[in-house]
Amino acid sequence: MSKSSELFPAIGQVADQTESIETKDVLEGNTAADEEKAVDEIDSLCMKCHEQGKTRMLLTSIPFFKEVVVMSFRCEHCGWSNNEIQSAGEIRPEGTTYTAKIRAREDLNRQIVRSSNCEVQIPELDLTLPPTERGQLTTVEGLLRDITADLSMDQPLRKIQDEATYTSIEALLTKIKAMLGDPDEGEDEEQEASSSKKEDIPIQPFTLKLDDPSGNSFLEFLGSMSDPKWNVRVYPRTFEQNVQLGLVAPDEEGNSESSQTEASQEITKEEILTFPGNCSSCGHSINTYMKRVDIPYFKEILIMSTNCDRCGYRDNEVKSGAAISPQGKRIILKVEDSEDLSRDILKSETAGLEIPEIDLVLTHGTLGGRFTTLEGILNQVYEELSEKVFAGDSSSGSEKKTFDTFLAGLKAAINVEKPFTVILDDPLANSYIQSLYAPDPDPNMTFELYDRTWEQNEGLGLNDIKVENYEEDAQEQDNPDTVTGEGEGAEKKES
Questions:
Q1: Diameter over CA atoms, the chain
Q2: H or E element in which residue 231 lies
Q3: pLDDT per position as a tens digit, 432-479
Q4: Which residues contact residue 351 at a Cβ distance below 8 angstroms, ignoring those fewer than 6 apart?
Q5: Strand order in the sheet with 136-139
Q6: Do the beta carbons of residue 355 and residue 422 sit within 8 Å?
Q7: Distance separating the N- and C-terminal Cα atoms of the chain
Q8: Cα→Cα distances 4→10, 12, 94, 346, Å
Q9: pLDDT (tens digit, 9 = 90+) per residue, 340-383?
Q10: Cβ distance 314 to 307 under 8 Å?
Q11: What pLDDT digit, counting tens, does each position of 50-91 carry?
């Protein structure tokens, strides 16, 4: 076993260590170096011949992925071998879908970590491999060759018993060989004589997709995560997927209590409405609560809250309950002490936030609708950026240094080490910062009203809204000929 203090060394370090140990054994004439072996060896019972075989275990970590355990078994008595890979980390909170465009021969060397819950798809072949009983560590080429070997296994027997199935599988095998760039059978001897020619054989382009609801599968990118032929997407698991993974228990009874409110009954300010739904994290049935709230010296808003008792998922959202303002509104607040950070702030889903002193710009819609304090929203921005941005080794040193400086400035603003300015810009005027001097003017806060541009109205969908004389548009759609004739007569009169 390695003397390294890391429990899961990188796979490259393990390879270098194994090579150095083998070189040392050859030079010193040692046949075994149990204390320095990079893998653990365990005597195991062979399930084929019931003799003793060897199981080798390697604890390693794959860059930009996670820790895994690679296991390999071989029996020297009957020759049976087996290998498997298992995740050594926790199940991720979301599922993942990896997609790679295989265009060149180098793309066939991309590494694949396939967990037992992963589904593999090749759309060009209409081929889908369902989840298996064990994980697999291979490459794109290795995966295709495994598929070829499995499909070719009983082909001679199928040719006699079911010729239609044999013909279909042969056509599929021909397409897979084209994807691998393998030469034709008549050219095998020539290609063996000159192996360099194989690299020049073009391959048939195709797309490979790995869909794993547990998030424990991985498809390697080339160079960096900006690889144009590689893409990863995360998605929330459904309730059925959580049940299949064993994360939640199936509902014993579908107890969906319907809490209906009469349409004619007006919603009062003291009333809390309940909407049944499904948790986006675990899929169980939950309730979303909504309440009307009047903010003094502002307007009416709707606060919605969701809390799952089973998995702990929580979410809240704020929406305006008033009419659309004819103008946009810009609120400028000069923060001078910690008292200013305790001001209530309502940031709608259409508002943007800026702090010019530290070059912080949150575009419109970032963080959604929030009703909190100024300190709370700055802390949320800090947590989101410090956890998710520049989390990999691919970022350069200068980028990391610049971003660390930015985070230090944001932390200084949260601690009010020096005065700064907060600009809250909302084209719908549905955002609010608490005034400490209301109803009198606040000396540290100013307001600016402005007319929205056509592009802003288009983005908000306001250009297509018509609340007056819309009955005439409906009549024009029902009777286009009549309206056209009236229009022509009107033109003649004007002329």
A1: 111
A2: strand 230-235
A3: 898 888 888 899 999 999 998 888 888 888 877 766 666 666 666 666
A4: 364, 424, 425, 426, 430, 431
A5: 136-139, 111-114, 218-219
A6: yes
A7: 98
A8: 11, 14, 32, 52
A9: 999 999 888 888 999 999 888 888 877 778 888 999 999 988 88
A10: yes
A11: 888 888 887 776 655 567 777 888 898 888 887 777 766 667
- Angstrom distances, CA of residue 119 to CA of 42, 68, 209, 226: 31, 19, 8, 24
What is the rounded distance in angstroms from the CA atom of residue 53 to the CA atom of residue 71?
13
Three-state DSSP class for 129?
strand
Sequence-ordered alpha helix ranges (H) in 424-465: 454-460
- DSSP per residue, 248-277: SPPPSS---------TTSPPPTT-EEEEEE
- The answer to whether 144 and 179 have CB atoms below 8 angstroms apart is yes
Q: Decide: 386 and 309 in contact? Cβ < 8 Å.
A: no
Q: List the structure tokens of 386.
A: 């410090």
**CB-based burial label for 306 (10 Å; 0-12, 13-18, 19+):** middle
With 0-12 / 13-18 / 19 or more C-beta atoms within 10 angstroms meaning exposed / middle / buried, residue 183 is middle
Record the tokens describing residue 443, joined without a space.
């000396």
CA 436 to chain CA mean position, Å: 41
Query: What are 138's two structure tokens?
Result: 């291979």
Alpha carbons within 13 A on the beta-carbon side of 285? 12
Which residue type does 150 have? D
Whether this prediction's pTM lies above 0.70 is answered by: no
pLDDT value of position 2: 39
The helix/strand/coil state of 21 is helix
